[in-house]
């Protein structure tokens, strides 16, 4: 299985060839405004940044350390790439007694987004990933992907309604089922960092833990600016105030050289998105934008409009299939 850095959306701050990347645009605060303090590192396999305005740089740095510690704590619950996480244990055993409250909370959000998107967002597709990973792990694998019967077997192990969860127990209905939170966890962690900063009185911040969310204006008084690298002759720039933005791109991970088999799976068919597929969504929260950008990959225009209408303030700002 590929390492986490190549797994999903390493496009947060790094341009991905043939896809779209979100790039926060920095600038110096205007004279008299609160200085920006910043942290840059890696979270859930993506290059990550936290920027906040604070009158006391030392106190601001301490707050950054607290926010990063919370992100690390959540990563130790949600990550697929560490054997010691709650998610990995659930996937190994099929049941988790006394699960972390954060995992239960995120599963409730997964359920909400599954309903909002009519099933297009489905965190139970991990068996499909395993099917593709197993197929391409052998030399001279058929570039068309797994044979139909193998894919059908994998699909039989999916189905969000067969994930049962409560505050004291999470269990799968069938042996071999597994979850991936890669389509929502980065956004959730971004939202959690924003919550911590807001609780400490911060009013101006940009947080990018794989997906981007802003709080208030930039210290210079304008909106925070985020560029979408579109692989076109020019970038699209978004002005964000108290909004989140997320991009899902088929180019985030390829099983084959041309990208026909990638990490974005239609939950109903197990087939992959087109290699050039990329969706960018703005919403009130990063986890919601994250899930919507994933789900819209396999939704037709009418279904996409209905899903977006169910989430006030959300909008599709880039759809690579339509230019």
UniProtKB/TrEMBL annotation:
EC number(s): the record gives 2.7.1.180
Q: Could you tell me the superkingdom of the organism this chain comes from?
A: Bacteria
This enzyme catalyses: L-threonyl-[protein] + FAD = FMN-L-threonyl-[protein] + AMP + H(+)
Named cofactor requirement(s): Mg(2+); Mn(2+)
What molecular functions are annotated in GO for this chain? Answer: metal ion binding; transferase activity
Q: Which InterPro entries match?
A: ApbE, ApbE-like_sf, TAT_signal
Transmembrane segments annotated in the record for this chain: none
Q: Keywords in UniProt for this one?
A: FAD, Flavoprotein, Magnesium, Metal-binding, Transferase
One Pfam match, given by its short name, reads: ApbE
- Residues where Mg(2+) binds: 183, 290, 294
Cofactor binding, per record: Magnesium. Can also use manganese.
| Family of the protein in this entry | Belongs to the ApbE family.
Identification of the protein by name: FAD:protein FMN transferase
Q: Which organism is it from?
A: Hyphomicrobium nitrativorans NL23
